[in-house]
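hey m, so remember when u said the tokens were messed up on ur end? i reran from scratch. heres the input so u can diff it against urs
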Amino acid sequence: MSCHVVTMLNPATSVSDAVKGRFMGPDREDLIVGKGSTVEVYSLGENTLHLEKEFSVCGIIRSLQVFQPNSESPVCSVFVLTDHNTYAIFSYNSNENKVVIDSKGVLEKENTLPSDQPVTVAVDHRRGVILVSIFSGFIFSIPYRRANARASLRPTALKTNELDINAMIPLYGVSSSSVAVLLGEIEEIKTIKLFRCDPGHIEENRNVVIQVEPTTHMLIPVPDHIGGIISVGEYIITYHDFQGGYKELSIEPVMVTSYAFIDAECRECLIADRDGNLYVLELGITNMKVTSITSTILGSIPTPNSLVSLGNGIIYCGSRQGDSTLIRLITDPSAKYRIKILQRCENIGPIVDFCIFDYNNQGKKTMVCCSGIDKDGSLRVVENGVGFKEEASMNIPFIDTVWTLKLGDGKRQHDTIVASTSNETVVITPFQDPTLAEDVNFYSAISLEEATLVIGNTYNGHIIQVTPSSVRLMSTGIDGTLLSQWRPPFSKTIAIAKLTPNKCVLYYESDALVCLQVENDNLVEKCSKEFKDISCIYIKLAEPKYHSDDYVLVGMGTSPNIFLLKLADFSVASLYTLETTTGTKDVALIQMNKKLHLLVLLGDGYLYYYQLEERLRLHNQRQTMMGTHCRSMFIFFEHEEPKIFVNGFQPTIISNLHGRLFFSAVNLKNITAASIFNKYLILVKNNQLLFGQTNEKQRFHYSTVSLDGDMPTRIEYQPTTKTLAVAITSKASDPTVDRDQRKGGLKILDAQNFQVLDTYSFSMNEVVESFVVTKFGDDDNEREFLFVGTAVDINEEPERSRGRVFVFYINDLRKCELITVQELPGIVYSMCRYGNSMAFGVNGSIFTLDRFQPNSESAKKLSIQSRLNKNVLAIYMDSKDNDVLVGDLIYSMALLKNRIEGDPATIERVAVENSPSWMCAVKIINENLFIGADDKNNLFTTTREENPDGMDRLEIMAGYQLGHLVNRFREGTLCYLHDGPIVDTNPITFVTVDGAFGVIQTIPEDRFEFLYEIQRNIADVSPFCNRTEHESWHRYSPPFKNLAPKPFIDGTLLKSFMTMNRSQRTRVMNGETLVPTTEKEIERQIVDIII
């Protein structure tokens, strides 16, 4: 049996719903946001949102609602409805600082059909019930307030005569009714009806029936002191007062997605449409009656599906298809609003396509996603690393480097900052608050008129300052005195210097290395040695476990030599010649995890790192690319663990992870220096000092590459030219055509700095559907080509859409050359390289590459021929060696192979799985094992079973409800993985519509059984999702295939063991089903699979 671990590496970033309420206390209103299976609670600070609490639910969030559990309660509870029709009511326990479940259940009714309309939820605060429309002909009533001590809080399915509920909202000011319901279209008319819903009874108010236009898609309740509702159609917005009165506003065609009242009097309502335009809808009110309705457009933001007014003109705009934003509505002198964006909350969903590549083939992976829809589209660059949380900053013009000092007797905390520019030194003391800090005109004998190379404290509290002209030893205090000074001979310039608390090693002007020692308040020259071309110095004091001598490492600027010298006399202990021709920029010798490591930063941006044996010999050489603009390395300690901060354009923190050096990108750019100031890490960036702390937890960091309003749809990495090929599409206007027009194109980007190198435009209404980068040619002349499949939409006859295959070559100048093009009788939905040929999914047919001769002078360089016609739509393909896996729009998947090896004309089906499944992605794990994702958010695996009576079958082995709609599988991962036989195959990364992405790993069966029992016990300990609920959530849905999730393990749940407290871990180990084991063994098993 094949077994798999499915781990969500990144949770959903798309916002499914957002509300506000006094959740964590009566004195403030919190913003409550649903993303995937996570609820996030934010407080509003100074124009920014701060995450206060987050918790997970057992399912994907459909809707959030807030309510007061009783009239005396000063705080609210949160109702959460999931995609599996389960619900839970959460409240906050302030005494224990945790979120608790008050009640939960499942909304189910036998012999009913799910509604084909969106699920709608409304809260009737007067009657204390939550109303949910999920099934046709029924409204569920969930009481949250007991009428008496014996009253049940279980949901009741209330039968209605209405089968098609489009929307449902609570009513204000209508005592006889609870909700207004928008019903489906009948004879080009939609209807609004009113209902009163009690915990066990529903009654229609037959006195009020309102007919509205057929494009009406939203109802907006107007609060109590005015009352009534607003119906929103694509062409008309209408206010209804339920007494026969109404006011209409004709508008340009729009589809409204969300709304929020922005003033206490409820005269102004902010609405947003699907293009991201914001409007203010203003109700003219006279004598508490609406007399007019007008609208004003404000501007555009990423398209929101949730608007929440937080007061003082601040609005949270949650989005599914772009970044969520926090905006402020500012009134200008003409009394009109304008939009100011205060904060962007990153959302990388929906991810349409992605690629993972290692730019320098050194193990440092980068993931680039095609994210967003239409104008909200962009490339999102994802890297694994740590976050720097900035807490304060201060400006120092032209700052280059920084140090911190402890001044005064017995000082244990840093209290002084020294910064250097190219020609002067700045001293800030005493330093407490960056906003109030001022530099001093003098301090002791510190030279302020020239740059500082290094400065530090001695053992007895004195100060050593090294400048280009001298080394200065001085006493502390603002009136301190110069105790001793050393200058290089012949007024030469000091180029490099390093300090310990009693020594200074320096190198001056292409001549000599000198060691000075502090003795009785004097600087004494202990030794010197002639050297040429030194570029960096590092002092390593004795560590008895590893070496008994003090050493100094010296790197050369134009040669790959590293000298290890004894500090006592500069005698050569060892000479290391690196396997490179590049000189060094910095060196370090550091002990991590009981091992001594030598790190060498080279001028070309590579970092070489080694382990040192007892005799100081190098072994286990490795290298990685840090970036061409790296400057230096700074060693600091976090929780007594050493770490290295690599300064540069793309800064990196090097730490120890399970006995290995681990490299984590930092979510900042262009850091020139770093230092430590008590609890703060100080970074120098663009004339600023940034004060903050790093997040110890590894996480993914995003950066955005704008495509100037174009939406990326496909992406491929080209390793030969180190470029990214990105397919783009954008809306194009044509007043002569009623239908939306699309314009497709191709952009070639540098894969490191993402600059656009070249572009190619396709015909109007021609867009890219599929991409492949592959090599063709003989061994002496093999070249990398980009195959592009398109869809050409014919306005007059859209059912006759066709497609084309383009072949491009990216030349040495990294420009896009069109080699050839062939038209095909359908849309080229998919393509893949297999064997020495290629396969193309063209509508429901499979075509193969018959001939490709890029160097031929003939006009016919490309020939693609039809081979099979057995699919509805062959929309997804994957290949491995000579096998092709096809995912169909309707009928699951099929395996293809050439009947005659090497002859694509003989391609045929060799195995099929024909059960109805609308496929979204397919992937070959190995020659007998395949995985697919369908439109019901499931993953399922198939294996090839021989059939002596006919075609082989792809037997479904297991199904797993992921909860996210998968758009794409790719081999590889950003996650750190251990070496060794821990997994059976390469990991597979998947991306989803809501911005989540994860990894699937195939593991041996014996390892699976152990991890499966751990998973079950962890589920029992989980506060919000027990074992039964967890297994039910991940069971294949709908259940007609009766697939058990057992061959799948929820790696995300396993990871939670690493953050459990001791009591929870003990409960896991003492669970019923787990064989006797230890905490360390469980941790090791989890770490081996998932980091």
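this time it looks ok to me. Confidence is low (pLDDT under 50) at residues 977-982. if urs says something different then somethings off w ur setup not the seq
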